[in-house]
Design goal:
Layout: H1 16-27, H2 44-56, E1 60-66, H3 80-88, E2 98-103, E3 112-118, E4 129-131, E5 134-136, H4 144-160, E6 169-175, H5 188-193, E7 200-203, E8 214-215, E9 217-226, E10 230-231, H6 241-255, E11 265-271, E12 278-279, E13 282-291, H7 294-319, H8 326-335, E14 336-342, E15 348-349, H9 353-362, E16 389-392, E17 409-411, H10 412-431, H11 435-441
Parallel strand pairs: 3-6, 3-7, 7-16
Antiparallel strand pairs: 1-2, 2-6, 4-5, 5-17, 8-15, 9-13, 9-14, 10-12, 11-13
């Protein structure tokens, strides 16, 4: 298979055991309940145990394997969908564990590199196969393939430098709760709070082998209309939520992007009802708004409130004399409300001259272009670690490799290239002087 762009770099080979591990992981359904999977069918425990068993052959030991405490998943940063799922299903957290693996003795963070990879996937099963050095299956690129390549890269690094696993520690976080809108609140966030971090922290997501030091966060707004229904024989007698929400969707799609800065505006689902002979007075419109900094997030939140108000005013002015929509126009502001299902999440914007020189200079990782938008991932929870540097790095491309879509795949060449990048990161870290010592020599 052809190699992609910046991924044409020396790699570390995947062996037969790696192939078998990846095919096994791809065959296990690990989409969580937020993706619509019944709790009884989620096999994350089994997948993580299989991964831990393979990691033991590299020298890793299980440091921790368990689930988040329900009491730690109730604060304002927890998305409403997670809180609702926990209230609805007592098994929700029990089937979504996370795993921590450690190579070598317990060392301080300044002597440790941490890698984070998620084992949960989006919903949707597809045939699993290895064909012409291309792995097919849900999670092939996001992120079971990177998880297996990570082990191959660490194995190669430990063979090249005996300090790795002795005086240099390696942690792997294998998490759940990355997909489904959970935003890592019961996976990655919990492990970060437990202190499983390093001097360098790499989150394994598809970046085409480029080092990404930014990650957006997102907030979810719900605009709900709670009016009165009417029948098709008297359509003006009720409130038409379909027209009102459609108008607001168009208004917000036109006006909000100017406030998004480094983020994105996604005008998403609109729901009122399916029948042709009824005017629906209730419904909802969903928007997902991403942002690159706390300041941008606050500005976008204010803009959401202001533009909703402006959109309602415009609707009233446009339809106040309309025979069918006059009542809806008169009551629009009274029957419309804005709820936030998710907001207040942190972002990542990492700057560390020593770590960046090690990764891009010594290890030779290409940088993510400054003019290319970042994306949202669990790295947001490691953005403010004292004395730590966090970045995103992984094989493949979310679009090209059909992540979250049919026929998701990962090429052996891109997985091996990522494994090689992991090897270079670890050997460069093992050979580097600590930043304090380097500064004293200047």
């Amino acid at each position: 298979m052809p190699k992609i762009g910046t991924e044409c770099v020396p790699g570390a080979p995947l062996i037969a055991a790696d192939d078998a591990l990846l095919l096994n992981l791809l065959a296990l359904p690990t989409a969580g309940p937020l993706e619509g999977e019944p709790s009884g069918q989620v096999r994350l425990w089994e997948a993580q145990r299989a991964y831990a068993q393979a990691a033991r052959a590299v020298g890793f030991a299980v440091e921790w394997h368990g689930t988040a405490d329900p009491g730690d998943v109730t604060d304002d940063q927890v998305p409403a969908s997670v809180r609702a799922a926990m209230a609805r299903d007592p098994e929700f957290l029990k089937v979504q564990p996370s795993l921590v693996l450690r190579l070598g003795p317990q060392l301080p963070p300044e002597s440790t590199v941490m890698f984070n990879v998620h084992m949960d996937t989006v919903a949707g099963r597809q045939p699993v196969r290895l064909e012409d050095d291309r792995f097919f299956g849900r999670g092939a690129i996001d992120a079971k393939g990177p998880a297996v390549a990570l082990l191959a890269g660490i194995r190669s690094a430990a063979a090249a430098d005996p300090r790795i696993g002795s005086t240099i520690g390696v942690l792997i976080q294998v998490v759940s709760g990355e997909e489904g809108g959970a935003m890592g609140v019961f996976g990655t966030r919990s492990l970060i709070e437990k202190g499983y971090t390093g001097r360098i922290n790499i989150f394994c997501e598809p970046t085409r082998g480029r080092l990404l030091t930014r990650s957006t966060a997102s907030m979810t707004a719900r605009i709900a209309v709670d009016g009165a229904d009417s029948i098709d024989d008297a359509p003006a007698a009720g409130h038409n939520a379909s027209v009102l929400l459609g108008h607001l969707a168009g208004h917000l799609a036109t006006t909000l992007p100017q406030y998004a800065g480094s983020g994105q505006v996604c005008v998403a689902g609109l729901e009122t009802g399916p029948l042709h002979n009824k005017v629906y007075g209730t419904g909802q419109l969903m928007l997902n708004l991403s942002y690159g900094s706390a300041a941008e997030g606050m500005a976008l939140e204010r803009a959401m409130h202001d533009e909703l108000k402006a959109g309602l005013a415009r609707f009233r002015a446009t339809f106040s004399g309309n025979k069918l929509l006059g009542l809806t126009a008169a009551d629009a502001a009274l029957i419309t409300r804005l709820d936030w299902l998710k907001r207040g999440l942190p972002t990542l914007d990492a700057h560390d001259a020593w770590a960046e020189h090690l990764l891009t200079g010594t290890a030779g990782l290409p940088c993510w272009p400054t003019n290319e938008p970042a994306f949202t991932c669990d790295a947001i929870w490691a953005g403010d670690l004292p004395g730590g540097f966090t970045a995103v790095l992984g094989p493949g491309d979310l679009r090209r490799n059909n992540a979250h879509a049919e026929d998701e795949f990962a090429d052996r060449a891109e997985l091996e290239s990522f494994a090689g990048a992991v090897t270079r990161v670890l050997t460069a870290f093992a050979a580097a002087e600590p930043p304090s010592a380097a500064a004293e020599d200047i």
